[in-house]
Amino acid sequence: MILWLARSAMVTLYPRTDAFPGIEDMDLDAYLLDYKRECATVMWIGFVLGTLLYHLTPLLTVLVPLPAFALSERLQALHAERLVSHPVYLVRQPVFLLKMVAGLRWGSDPRVRERFALAPYPADPGTRRLA
Amino acid sequence: MTHHSFSDRNLELDVDYVVVGSGAGGATAASFLARGGATVALVEAGPWRDPADYPSSTYGAMRDLFDDWGVGITRGRALWPIVQASCVGGTTVINSAICVRTPADVMVDWERDLGVGGEAFRDAIWRHQDALEAELCATVVPHEAAGLSNLRAAKGANAIGYDNHPITRYAKGCTGEGQCLQGCSSLRKQSLNLQFVPEVQQRGGAVLSCAPVERVIVEGRRAVGVTGRFREPVTRRLGARFTVRAKKGVLLAASVTRTAPLLMASGVRHPLLGHGFRAHPGTGVFGVYDDAVDMNRGATQGWASTHWRTDVGMKLETLAIPPEMVASRLAGSGALLLERLEEYRRMAMWCVAVRAEAVGRIRRGLFGEVNVSYGFGRPDMERLRKGLVVLAQTHFAAGARKVVPGVYGLPYSLGPDEIGLLENGPLDPRAYILVTSHLFGGTCMHGDPSRGVCDDQGRVHGYDGLVIADASVIPSTLGVNPQHTIMAIARLFTERLLDA
After folding, report:
1. Which residues of chain B neighbour A19 with C-beta distances below 8 Å?
2. Cβ separation of A108 and B5 shorter than 8 Å?
3. Residue B246: alpha-carbon gap to chain centroid
4. Domain B140-180+282-355+375-431 - what CATH class?
5. What percent of chain B has pLDDT over 90?
6. Cα separation of B354 and B386, whole Å?
7. Which of B486, B498, B381, B386 is nearest to B439 (CA)?
8. Size of interface A-B (CB pairs under 8 A)
9. Hey, which CATH number is domain B2-68+82-97+100-135+191-273+443-499, 3.90.230.10, 3.50.50.60, 2.60.410.10, 1.10.720.60?
10. Is residue A129 situated within a structural domain?
11. Is the residue at A123 inside a domain?
12. Tell me, what's the ipTM?
């Protein structure tokens, strides 16, 4: 459930545009599963907090008493923009973490890197010296 | 050559010296001890990643190289991440290998105010730095590898007229791949997993990786070894116990945020343990140019200015960051954010590191976690703001069309005639996105045992055989990158151990 909610938020944060693919075009489900499995506990807790905050606060931002995932595309975009620039620091920060985790995936996509004249990243080996 | 990594079989070793931590301090100390003929075990909490294991992406770097994904934070009014590595070689694997000599004024202050150091100490530090520069090929960033961001910073600074210089780094034949942060897979950067750690092995020492030390074994008032349990780096599953007994001494170089808590966990008592935490927190300003800068081509950090190191208390430097980091750094979301990101190729990020007067404290929490309380007061915020203003002016002097300061409460971008907004920008630290780097203190040296945890040979007051050999002993900020100082201090303390 939390991954589904996170996915919904990330799609709004990094949508498809004329210039770039959206994060929804980047095998997001697999990325979120990897992230859940691999990230540090503290980072996961912050990520969950950011996701819940994102979905539970449209009343504060767009004055609609619905979770963010139930908003129209236009209202969700407005909600996201107001949340990432929210005057309360402790509201901004967890959402910043959510935006950062999404940005790590979006910005490393080969199509995005190509747009910036950067070579695609080789796969991260994830290996270490064993003996 | 012996390497012990994660294992389900208990391990017991007997050596002359055990060194905890394999970063700038630990690897340097261990190699120097091994050169002196001692048997050494070097114990590292993180895994051993060879260049073939290095990640390419920032996600991979955070997962494979950073300490706890880089989410350790300092807690004050604002929460600032602490950037350091947890792997064999420590932060030398992910930093820019910047090599700056310990400033004389800092050591004069130490002698005058703290009763540590003195002329012989200064001469010894610089003698070791001479040797380190030769061993690790300290070289000025070559012009052809500098990249446009670094060259434009020099152009802007020269146009304004303040002192600036290309950076000297421990790098041999840098080709400007812009991959310092993920580990230099082209083998140019002389990180210590490639230099001193293999030397420890070649000289008969043992290296333990994935081996976080739980406590120093103290018998009476003498440190006689360390113990802990192997930990698998991905699953974090605990493995077997390792115990390394040391006949001659235990050297701690686990990093500023780990060394003091390790002493606390080991029952070492001193009223100032964990006190005196200092740092050079910093942030950056993007300049947006009319043509492509491609900051990720060229040395990750190739330009610096220490013009305001002593009077204001700040250092300026370039820092190239990849699109995935810029994506979260820029304000906004959705289509607006992506529109801003379209300018990435024309962006250059330059940073200010504040030589902060703030002093924090490191504590060990109930569950063994590390808590660092630290925050800026008004004078440090004014330094930060001054640095951002100078960076903005430098961008404009270098030809930028606009700057993106990334300050909450200010417009997204500012033109040349809007710098006044930045000069009068907020003094609330929560309005800025800062990163805490260049950490100092926690077990500060002092000539008076009641006013410092260790002496100017790193020996913990009141204990035998227990030496600190990392930035934890440094009792003030330096105003320059600390790796060269940490390595020289580690060599000096080790030299005195061997002479004793």
Report:
1. 338-339, 342
2. no
3. 28
4. alpha beta
5. 94
6. 10
7. B486
8. 148
9. 3.50.50.60
10. no
11. no
12. 0.96
pLDDT digits (tens, 9 = 90+) for A112-122: 999 999 999 99
Render pLDDT for B429-470 as a digit per residue (tens, 0 to 9): 999 999 999 999 999 999 899 999 999 999 999 999 999 999
Helices (H), B347-444: 378-397, 419-423
Nearest to A80 among B333, B338, B430 (CB): B333
Q: Say how far apart CA B150 and CA B321 lie, in whole Å.
A: 13
**In chain B, whose CA is at the least distance from the CA of A14?**
B334
Name every residue whose Cβ is closer than 8 Å to that of residue B58 and which is 6 or more positions away in sequence.
A104, A107, A108, B181, B182, B322, B324, B325
Domain count, chain A: 1
Structure tokens at B407: 């300050």
Tell whether A88 is within 8 A of chain B (Cβ). no
Considering CB atoms only, which of B68, B294, B332 is closest to A84? Answer: B332
Amino acid occupying residue B320? A
CA B456 to chain A, closest CA, distance in angstroms equals 36
* Lowest mean pLDDT across A34-43, B300-309, B382-391, B414-423: A34-43
**Rounded distance between C-alpha atoms, residue B274 and residue B443, angstroms:** 6
Domain ranges of chain B: 2-68+82-97+100-135+191-273+443-499, 140-180+282-355+375-431
Whether residue A108 and residue B335 make contact (CB cut-off 8 A), yes or no, is no
Single-letter amino acid code for the residue at B119: E
What separation in angstroms does the CA of B476 have from each of A113, B208, B334?
41, 32, 43
pLDDT of residue B175: 87
Residues B240-271 have pLDDT tens digits of 999 999 999 999 999 999 999 999 999 999 99
Check CB contact under 8 Å for B48 and A128.
Answer: yes
